């Protein structure tokens, strides 16, 4: 759906951070089958993991440790984001050492104030990149930046700054094939930012990129991840009974408590203690007491819940279950963080796999 929505711009599926907790390799394969032409990762190790899985699609890695070894990445046809003149020189040196031309995407900082070449250093950087192209050490395949998603006016100013940077690159003799600025948020709300390539991150996982209450359903998105567990134990307690560390919650009536064997070691945010809800036995039920490292407790009232019953922590809200954004609200964070932090102890199962 997203690839069609942003056409004719090409689509990059961002699979960094283990595909936002979903599993980089299976998500990458599914994204390519679904119409993505590119894959995006943060660091070179993530790109190598895709190549190790025999994924040959174009991959861009854009965030590098100061001591990054660019040579093996160049040898494996991994495109490299470059955020400074020093980084450009290091990539060129690595390309010469392996006897290959490095494909690079020059990043201009248009206002996010993170990585990227500062505007005052941009002219010198693109001029040097042009010299390195003549020497066949690098090929500037792309120019990119990233929106702050602050407001329409500020995003428009970033687009203007980016377009000026592209003009400077072309004036220096560069002919980048790809201009990319928009992630999911910009691609959906600011069509002018789509340019040649759109980097689809959180939207690929069915989670809205906006913090204004816009739901996945309103955007035509369906959450990809459903986090399930099974009730490990059930007990009946009397009024006044305390639950979990510090007894921050006490029963105010006779009630049934269900134990869920997931905790903050699995990525369940402790900040959501006594605030989040889960879906058990056809209804949303409150998490009570402090979420511990490996477990938490749910108040199910007088309803019958048995050991082994399924618990849905979050998933598609159209089923009645909480969403990742609901857990984000309960933990004073965002849905992005909720899905990305799900740890390796939690097995992933993929629909359609044998």
TrEMBL record:
<feature type="modified residue" description="N6-(pyridoxal phosphate)lysine">
    <location>
        <position position="16"/>
    </location>
</feature>
<comment type="similarity">
    <text>Belongs to the alanine racemase family.</text>
</comment>
<dbReference type="InterPro" id="IPR001608">
    <property type="entry name" value="Ala_racemase_N"/>
</dbReference>
<feature type="binding site">
    <location>
        <position position="293"/>
    </location>
    <ligand>
        <name>substrate</name>
    </ligand>
</feature>
<dbReference type="GO" id="GO:0008784">
    <property type="term" value="F:alanine racemase activity"/>
</dbReference>
<keyword id="KW-0413">Isomerase</keyword>
<dbReference type="InterPro" id="IPR011079">
    <property type="entry name" value="Ala_racemase_C"/>
</dbReference>
<dbReference type="GO" id="GO:0005829">
    <property type="term" value="C:cytosol"/>
</dbReference>
<dbReference type="InterPro" id="IPR029066">
    <property type="entry name" value="PLP-binding_barrel"/>
</dbReference>
<feature type="active site" description="Proton acceptor; specific for D-alanine">
    <location>
        <position position="16"/>
    </location>
</feature>
<dbReference type="GO" id="GO:0030632">
    <property type="term" value="P:D-alanine biosynthetic process"/>
</dbReference>
<comment type="function">
    <text>Catalyzes the interconversion of L-alanine and D-alanine. May also act on other amino acids.</text>
</comment>
<dbReference type="InterPro" id="IPR020622">
    <property type="entry name" value="Ala_racemase_pyridoxalP-BS"/>
</dbReference>
<dbReference type="GO" id="GO:0009252">
    <property type="term" value="P:peptidoglycan biosynthetic process"/>
</dbReference>
<comment type="pathway">
    <text>Amino-acid biosynthesis; D-alanine biosynthesis; D-alanine from L-alanine: step 1/1.</text>
</comment>
<dbReference type="GO" id="GO:0030170">
    <property type="term" value="F:pyridoxal phosphate binding"/>
</dbReference>
<feature type="binding site">
    <location>
        <position position="114"/>
    </location>
    <ligand>
        <name>substrate</name>
    </ligand>
</feature>
<feature type="active site" description="Proton acceptor; specific for L-alanine">
    <location>
        <position position="245"/>
    </location>
</feature>
<dbReference type="InterPro" id="IPR000821">
    <property type="entry name" value="Ala_racemase"/>
</dbReference>
<keyword id="KW-0663">Pyridoxal phosphate</keyword>
<protein>
    <recommendedName>
        <fullName>Alanine racemase</fullName>
        <ecNumber>5.1.1.1</ecNumber>
    </recommendedName>
</protein>
<dbReference type="InterPro" id="IPR009006">
    <property type="entry name" value="Ala_racemase/Decarboxylase_C"/>
</dbReference>
<dbReference type="Pfam" id="PF00842">
    <property type="entry name" value="Ala_racemase_C"/>
</dbReference>
<feature type="domain" description="Alanine racemase C-terminal">
    <location>
        <begin position="224"/>
        <end position="351"/>
    </location>
</feature>
<dbReference type="Pfam" id="PF01168">
    <property type="entry name" value="Ala_racemase_N"/>
</dbReference>
């Amino acid at each position: 759906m997203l690839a069609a929505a942003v056409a004719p711009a090409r689509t990059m599926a961002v699979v960094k951070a283990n595909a936002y907790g979903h599993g980089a390799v299976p998500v990458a394969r599914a994204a390519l089958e679904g119409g993505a032409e590119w894959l995006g990762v943060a660091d070179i190790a993530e790109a190598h993991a895709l190549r190790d899985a025999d994924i040959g699609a174009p991959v861009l890695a854009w965030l590098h440790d100061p001591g990054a070894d660019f040579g093996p990445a160049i040898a494996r046809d991994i495109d490299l984001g470059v955020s400074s003149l020093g980084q450009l020189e290091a990539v060129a040196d690595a390309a010469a050492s392996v006897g290959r031309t490095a494909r690079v995407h020059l990043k201009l900082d248009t206002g996010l104030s993170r990585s990227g070449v500062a505007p005052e250093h941009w002219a010198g950087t693109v001029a040097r990149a042009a010299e390195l192209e003549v020497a066949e050490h690098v090929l500037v395949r792309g120019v990119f930046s990233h929106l702050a998603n602050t407001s329409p006016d500020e995003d428009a100013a970033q687009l203007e700054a980016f377009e000026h940077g592209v003009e400077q690159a072309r004036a220096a003799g560069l002919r980048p094939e790809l201009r990319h600025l928009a992630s999911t948020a910009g691609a959906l709300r600011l069509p002018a930012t789509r340019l040649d390539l759109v980097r689809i991150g959180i939207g690929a996982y069915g989670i809205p990129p906006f913090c204004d209450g816009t739901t996945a359903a309103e955007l035509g998105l369906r959450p990809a991840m459903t986090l399930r567990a099974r009730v490990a134990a059930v007990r009946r307690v009397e009024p006044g009974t305390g639950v979990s560390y510090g007894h921050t919650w006490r029963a105010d009536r006779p009630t049934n408590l269900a134990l869920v064997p997931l905790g903050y070691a699995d990525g369940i945010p402790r900040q959501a203690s006594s605030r989040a809800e889960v879906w058990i036995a056809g209804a949303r039920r409150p998490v009570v007491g402090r979420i511990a490292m490996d477990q938490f407790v749910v108040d199910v009232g007088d309803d019958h819940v048995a050991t082994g019953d399924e618990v849905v922590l979050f998933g598609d809200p159209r089923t009645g279950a909480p969403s990742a954004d609901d857990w984000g609200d309960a933990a004073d964070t965002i849905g992005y963080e909720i899905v990305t932090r799900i740890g390796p102890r939690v097995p992933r199962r993929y629909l359609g796999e044998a």
